[in-house]
Amino acid sequence: MEENKNLTAERSLEIITAQIERSRKTVSKDAGLSLFIAGLCIIGVAIVTAVCALLTGNMAFHLLYVLVPVLVIGIERYVKRNQPKVPDSIISTMVDKTWQTFGIFVLSFFVLSILFNRLMLHDALVADNMQVFFQNRINPVRIILLMMGMAVTINGYTLKSKWMVWCGIIGGIGGFFWESFCVTETLLAWSKVPFEHYGTLQVIAPNLMMAVFTFIGLTLPGWMLIKKR
Predict the structure, then answer these.
(1) Which residue, of 3, 87, 105, 222, has the greatest Cβ tally within 10 A?
(2) pTM, entire model
(3) Is 194 helix (H, G, I), strand (E, B) or coil?
């Protein structure tokens, strides 16, 4: 009797393990498509933002990034319209909640950083001291890239995808340090770019870095998950 109970317990554990693994594979394919779409949307918005800001000289076009969640949700629903819904499971719930948390934090931080920078700019203009503004302004790109990397890495561990883990680490931490240590500005200084082109590159560079590290952190792991499963 005791032996039968042990066999039953072992069989139950095997069934649960197999169900979790099947769920992980199903969620991996669905998550890969979502990552791929999100990455392409951000890259597209980054390019449009850079071109519009460059042609008009109006930095307000960076607010186009607020449209990213709308674009991602709309395109994702259209692409997945004929696909069966992923069954609810602990794996799918963890993935969904991770990206919901990421979206809430990123959107809130982006809006608050814009408001803070506007306030700091107003105070700097009133005090006729722009140095205060440049010293205290918030650079949202580096924090957003770091949070993106964290979300991708957590999903990578959840889905047991080494590609996602490494892409999240490289895209997130790499983007954070790139922006924090002003690598773009340093490279521009070393390249001895003519002063008349410096402003143009300053507009393009942040959006270019956003596109590059988004490709590494979202588009690439998404593509690998799609191809793998």
Answers:
(1) 222
(2) 0.73
(3) coil
